[in-house]
Write a structure and sequence with these properties.
The protein has one domain: Orthogonal Bundle (Helix Hairpins). Helix content is 79%, strand content 0%. The chain has four helices and no strands. α1 packs across α3.
Length: 112
């Protein structure tokens, strides 16, 4: 069971995913999981390109970064919904694994 620290996050993510699925189904054409996977990678690539520009010393507005981050999140929701993946459950499971590893490393005096 996920600890209380993440409980609120998980509950909210589940509702966000459901609400977004309803919105997507109401206003946009049905697309395949493969389409959404490609869209997700494209959006993540655009976000990465902005970070590369920053790394090279160029100025990029936080609004532009936020816009690309939002596009990436939307694409992830679309992909998860098209594959019938409960992101809240998947995140909760992954956080449990991460927390177990973090605790094991901490007991050895190591950082995660």
């Amino acid at each position: 069971m996920i600890n209380g620290y993440f409980k609120h996050l998980i509950e909210n993510l589940e509702q966000i995913q459901k609400d977004f699925d309803n919105y997507q189904n109401q206003y946009f054409p049905k697309r395949s999981p493969e389409f959404f996977c490609l869209e997700l990678n494209g959006e993540a690539g655009e976000l990465a390109n902005l970070e590369k520009k920053i790394w090279k010393g160029k100025t990029v507005s936080i609004e532009h970064i936020a816009d690309e981050a939002a596009d990436t999140f939307i694409a992830l929701l679309n992909y998860a919904n098209s594959r019938k993946i409960n992101l809240a459950l998947a995140v909760a499971n992954k956080l449990q694994i991460i927390e177990q590893k973090r605790i094991a490393l901490q007991q050895k005096g190591e950082d995660y």
